[in-house]
Amino acid sequence: GGAAGGPNTVNESQQNVFTETQTLVKYEIMDGAPVKGEVIPVKLSLRGIPADLTPTYTAVNNRFSVRYFLNLVLVDEEDRRYFKQQEIILWRKDLG
């Protein structure tokens, strides 16, 4: 299964850095062992995430950033776990 992780908020004040991590939702996207080289398409519906999502922000007034990550865990037939973390960028179209 995989987890949609985020927001990862970093507040920078001089040398102080604070990181907050929150898991928003977890999904199991496949049952059974994957075949080597198999591609598994994933569609993540943001409507199903029970949080107020914001767009990705980078260094707002050099004070904080908001980043989102997709954390994937693949478990093979021998119960070995493989991990991948991918940053995803969220944006909002202009309203109106």
Structural summary, described in words:
The chain is an all-beta fold and 96 residues long. Helices cover 0% and strands 48% of the residues. The chain has strands at residues 2-13, 16-20, 23-27, 57-60, 64-75, 81-88. Strands 1, 2, 3, 4, 5 and 6 form a six-stranded antiparallel beta sheet that branches. A hairpin with a 2-residue loop joins strand 1 and strand 2 (16-20). The N and C termini lie far apart (38 Å).
Summed up, what is this model?
The protein is mainly beta and 96 residues long.
Q: Secondary structure elements and their pairing?
A:
Elements: E1 2-13, E2 16-20, E3 23-27, E4 57-60, E5 64-75, E6 81-88
Number of strands: 6
Helix percent reads under 10%
Mean pLDDT, nearest integer? 75
Low-confidence stretches: 8-14
Assembly state: single chain
The largest pleated sheet is described as: 6 strands, antiparallel
Could you say which overall geometry the principal axes of the C-alpha atoms support? elongated
- Taken as a percent bin, the fraction of beta residues is over 45%
Structural class per helix/strand content?
mainly beta
What is the first-to-last residue Cα distance? 38 Å
Please give the count of helices.
Answer: 0
Radius of gyration computed on alpha carbons = 16 Å
Order of helices and strands: EEEEEE
